[in-house]
Amino acid sequence: MTDPIADYLTRLRNAIKAGHRVVEVPASNLKKEITRILFEKGYILSYKFVEDGPQGTIKIALKYDPVNKVNAIKSLQRVSTPGLRQYVGYREMPRVLNGLGIAILSTSKGVMTNKEALGLKLGGEVICYIY
Hints:
With 131 residues, the chain is α+β, with helices and mostly antiparallel strands.
């Protein structure tokens, strides 16, 4: 697998389109941090790290509106790829959907959202956009 983050986002996207409640993805430290941010920002219902085998898995419970059966995540978009890394300074911080969505960045202080990085005046690699 050449791009595990794109695989992670694709598994989430496919599970949402298929209407699944739970999706399992192979674990890594970066995927764990992205999952933690998605939970804190209210895009997923819950998550659990399962230590089985050398890598482990992440079980993610997706969040749906009970009335309309619409998922909380409308779009997952990979920005920085292994072939073309996208870096921004804090002055060029992207605004996703005029501030309604989030951009997840990998900075020198760890993985965080664009709003947190802007508050700390940090730039970094833009991993993905979520809204």
